[in-house]
Amino acid sequence: MGHNGEIIRSGKSWRILLALLCMLLVVVAGTAQVAHTHADGMAHADCSLCVAAHVTVQRAKTPAPVPSVAVVTVLEAEPPSVLPIALLTFALFTRPPPAGIVPA
Description:
This protein is mainly α. The chain is built from two helices and no strands.
């Protein structure tokens, strides 16, 4: 029993360590990209950070325009449904309410 608990705890510690490492990597990379500047203030084609910051998805082919089609149909109106006035009727009524209120 004790040996199995140690395996579970060691698995959780590796997951926590991996998560912390990933968060640290994101923070360091984000800080490097934000603080990255050049002396002339321009982006350079040979700088990997500048290229990564300005990369965009290039389409291989422009999509064909969707042809416009007018759809005309006849709509038939449904007659309004008749809703019951009372949702619940209590059939086990045994006596009427008291005639007068007696102060206690």
